[in-house]
Amino acid sequence: MQVINGTEFTQNEILVGQSFVTRSFGVTDDPMLMSMLSTGFYQHPLRTMIQEIMFNAWDAHRMANCQDKPIDIYINDTTGLIVRDYGPGIEPGENDNNMHQIYCMYGGSTKRNLKNQTGGFGLGSKSPFAYTESFTVTSHFGGTKNMYLISRVSEANEGKPGMTCLVRVPTTETGLMVTVPLKKDSEFRAYDLVKDVLFLSGIKANIHYMDDPVELIESESVTPGAYHVEKTRTGRNIYAVYGGVRYLIPENPEYKDEYSFLRLLANNKNIYVGFAPDSLSPLPNREGLNMGEKSKETVKAVFERCTEKFQETFNPLIKLFFQTLFEKHKKEGVQGHFAFYNAYDIAFTNSYNDLIDLKLKLIENKPSNIDLNVWKIAVELILVKTGAITNYVGFDSWKVIFAHAFIETFPDHKNLAFKLLKEPIFKTGIRKLALNFVANIYNTRFLIDQMTFIKKMKEAFPNDDTLIPVLHFPIGNKYTTVIQERSKSNKQKTKWGVGTLEADDPRLKRKDGLVDLNAVYHKTDSTKLNFMMMQKTIIIAKTISTLNSTHIPEKFRNNKKTMNSVYEYQNDTSCVLPGYVVHKRQGAYEKALEILTHMGFIVIEGDEPVKAVVKPKKASSTFNKLAIEFADWKSSELIDNPTHFLYLTTHMIHGCSYLKPAPSLVAWFTKIHPKTVLVGYKKSADKLHTKGVIPFHEEIENWFIQLSTDEERMRNLIRGQIIRKKSNLSDEMIFHPLIQLELGMEPIDPNDLNFWADSEALKVIKSSECFSYNFNEKVKKRIEHLWDTDPEKQNIVKMCNSLQMFTSYALSSLWSSAGSDDKDKVVDKIIAAMKLFS
Fold first, then answer.
1. Cα Rg for the chain, rounded, in angstroms?
2. What is the pTM of this model?
3. Do 152 and 129 meet the contact criterion of CB atoms below 8 Å apart?
4. SS3 category, 762
């Protein structure tokens, strides 16, 4: 691979006279310079050394055209790190001159002009010197196995680096093996770095870590011009993948817009972009990029190509996105104006979290001319950053796409879409503007329908105003008329306070029967109600209680859910279905039903309550089962002949009584004693006690006395408490017997199914106030004594403290990402980490 672009270093020579001689440069082999090149060249010696050795091995497989075969990487506490390839090996040459040129000459490289090779500086083969004083290289070539000791400081070579041949024996193998000793307890760190280097490297490798089974890694690669968004780790960085090595691309004004766009695509994840050979210039230590002018031009050109691919994707994706959303609304029975408002809001606010359910459908309907990877990234982005994409394509373009998708699904509401294309609606204050935009069109229709209905009812009952229905609005969870209509109120709010209007003030006049929803306010605080009602849909009932208790079908409640996805609307009203209370006298209810049906309304009739037949209560010996998941700590299940009871009055349950036990303790108790009942009266409790039913508190004290006789189990219960509190490990990890053993617990008997519940109960009992002082003191002293005299106490504390080096999130992620077959391997790693930091 060409490592430095020569065009970045051109200059114009100016010669004055012809009498001077040009002298050449050279490099001294002074030991101090050799040491600087070896030890002061790398910021991350262990990682860079592993990277260089692994890529050299994979380059050998490229050279031998055997990429179908993995390289082998061995990591253990005996031989350290071994990287073995099966390429052609290195011909030693006369007097081992070839080996000397590669491993003892800084700048000596065999790959400088090879496009498919990584490296070319002539430094990577010496990178182990940054980590260790010496290492060995074994070359299998031409039927001979040659092993060399490479030393950073050789006494035989006046303190300079030296190479000594140790072994020459016949062999039938080919390839190279590099062996580097690892520092004490750094095997796990080396394993992690190997895995990190393999990410997107394109390398195929077998990892032999300690005594674990062989782990085959077939790394993905990123082709030039392609990109990969990381799914596991968070970050906001952009990396170039160049020759399989990842390099951080810094921000730069020359590609500022493209850089910001790629960050948007990554959505708080790292993104990796592939670059072609000879297009970038890595630094000599290959820990970063030389961002000269040519490199910046290359980065900008590649970023622009990436941007163009997504620009071609966004328009069809936005159209499909809104088509899918509108179809979902229509299928659920959502009326067009609500679907319009909801989708409009989503386009700028991302308020609809359930859109993730549309992901598979969007991917399944990918256009055939768009790359699948590009489409997946765009789909992921539009689900979580809809507004960002909307801003990117431009508001005018978005309006056209949105309007067409809406008309295709709701053709009867196309006037909304046409109005949108004409009206100057902007992105700022979107909720209020969109609500007013839709309300101005649809509330007028709604009000005219209501006015027509009222007029027809007045014509039917001209002499009795009490039979004229009153429109009820749903505020909160109830239908109510407690609403102040500003056009009828004589209270006028001004910036100087609230004034009173005269009765003949023209501002109090309005059209008869027409309620202006845009002038309706809360009566209590005079705040404006911004809402829309369903069209041609009404609920009628004979009483207000029936109206409030009527079950609204799911089809109509979906309209409410659609509007409630917007918090501003939800604060004003929790329903979109208006209601009328119509008296049944003189057939008014039936007449109202007839008129509304004739007008084309969908009418939901109120659920009239069925009169219950009250039967006299019979004395019963059954009691409600104790259950904390219910508000009154009792379920509807009745228990006959209970074994235990808990006496608590309603005041104790809902108040702050110290006699009320902790819910977790009650849950544990009822699981062991399912026939436990709740008693709310002292006389009932006394009767049960007389019959031999055991009180809750008495049974717990008996349980503790019995537990105290089994000192070994009780001590282990205490250990479990301490470990769960201090170790940062999830319960799933602590349940693993090897971790229990390593942390100082006795592995739990598989038949002891109540162990962890008992351990938690013991902790709760210790701190509970519902028991007598003497009992609490007895529990505390017993637990403290067993813990203070525990021979494993020091080890448990030490191991738990060692795990504080890791966050609980990191440990949980490590555990959850491992398959069921890999759990034991994760346990071994955790144990190794505990030993390392303890």
1. 39
2. 0.51
3. yes
4. helix
